[in-house]
Amino acid sequence: MPTPSNPLKAVRGTRDLLPPETALWNRVESIARSVFSRYGFGEIRTPIFEDTQLFARGVGEETDIVSKEMYTWLDGERFSVGKLMGAWESRPDADLPLTRHAGAGLIVYFREGTLECVGFRAKADAQAIQWMRQVVSSYAQKDQATNVRGKLVVPVGMGRLPEAFSVPAGIVVEEMAGNYFESSQSLTLRPENTAGVVRAYIEHNLGDSGQFQKLFYIGPQFRRERPQRGRYRQFWQIGAEVLGPVTSGSESPLRDAEVLEMLATLLDELGVKNWQLALNSVGSAEDRKRYVAILRDALAPIKHQLCPDNQRRAETNPLRVLDSKEPNDQALIDGLPKIADYLDESSREHFSQVLAALDACGVPYTVNPRLVRGLDYYTRTTFEFTVPSSADPASGLGTQNALLGGGRYDGLSEMLGGPRAPGIGFAIGEDRLILTLQAQAAADAAAKAGVPHSSQSHRDEWEAPKLDAYIAPLGPERNAAALALARELRRAGLSVEVGDGAFRLKKSFEAADRVARHIVILGEDEARSGILTVKTFASGEQKKIEQPALVTQLRI
Ligand code: HAM
Questions:
Q1: In terms of pLDDT, which residue wins out, 147 or 541?
Q2: What is the C-alpha separation between 386 and 406, in angstroms, rounded?
Q3: Which among 273, 319, 518, 556 is most buried, taking Cβ atoms within 10 Å?
Q4: Atom of ligand 1 nearest to the CA of 404
Q5: pTM attached to this predicted model
């Protein structure tokens, strides 16, 4: 039981984002939106939970994300209108009418001038009856049938209407025995958004346009990871995907380079300093299969020297060993065969064209042959952007120094049952981006002031901009006039806070100084004369201003 000494708290690994910090989040998101729109991306918003199968198939059963980090539950039983309709039509005593047509949850029978509309619903509530009434009246008008009847069919036990409710004439409710519910469905809070975007691409036939789609998203993702600085169980991603039919050019190395160049522009516009781009090619699905077999063989004789986690990975998913940050294993991992040596000619050519386009744009990068990334859908180009790691506190990220990651996923659409639709995309960890910006701002401020900088003080160094004015009514009887003045100023576009007439003047000044650039005093004299006293905190200057000139003065 929560008590005043032990109140409820946000769940471990989740956190509240509060002002003034949220102003920085909004700034970051608006810069991202502006860059995305210049590169022709439109926003997509997919559901926060999806069928578990989507991630199992898309991200991969053997990945850390799917095997141990997902929030998955069985959702309750769902009513199946199809099952109820099927049972109705095949009931043993069905006397089959001459003509019929069926639609979603409705079958209409015609027989000798009589028209019977049979609707199917989970229960007979007021909404269902109202719907039946509309159906009956629209058929009566449309077909000018002399005799139109309505029947609402519901599962047994679901036909009882509230006592006060009477079923209109011409409509009857009938219950059908049997189970018309589908067994429960396994659902998962999305751990990432690429699988959801590709599912939506398939579901809405977005490939039919013949063009590639450029889609971006900003939203929360969920992974049950061990929380630490820069790693949360609910975290935010800003991501984008480019995908489409092969004929649209979605497979072209130009798309890869454009996405990477856009990211370089975005990080520069956000003011992220010292970012580094690492990229690699993991080749086609066939290249990878060949390489994994070679890697498995190479790992077999040295496996016992690796940490337990890497020993397990060597068995289940050898590529993951390359990702390992375990310090004691690094020398052995560096000695393993490199995927670059096992790419086929077309993957090699694709990668070299990506690099050539980056060179042409002047985007700096390093090729990291160990960058295979932790999701199974990647093919060809994979990449990460990092900021200097824990050695430099200005990164703000400690060991979680991957600001964003992404790559190509040419087979993902087919893995999800869709048409061929090669694609490439990325997701920025927004929490990490914000930590980085805060840390950099703190380091800059400390450098300017000539004091050593502590990585713990980042949060305090980000201050929201001050409001234009604080209105201080003198006495409770001035409160109403203060609110009316605030309304006028806010309508003119100013940001305004209103104090309380019960405050002493000293308290009003203190409150105003904390949140606003100016204080406007509203006492009896001011109300009578229309001349207001305004103090500007930065200069300490106090002035009498006529009300019409107030807006101009407060903008200063
Ligand atoms: P990811 O590498 O799993 O890729 O995640 C992308 C970024 O999300 C990471 O680089 C990191 O900044 C951030 N992130 C991941 N987990 C956490 C966490 N627990 N707490 C805070 N931030 C985190 C993907 O999600 C792919 N869907 C990216 C992609 C898009 N690939 C192609 N298209």
A1: 541
A2: 12
A3: 518
A4: 10
A5: 0.79
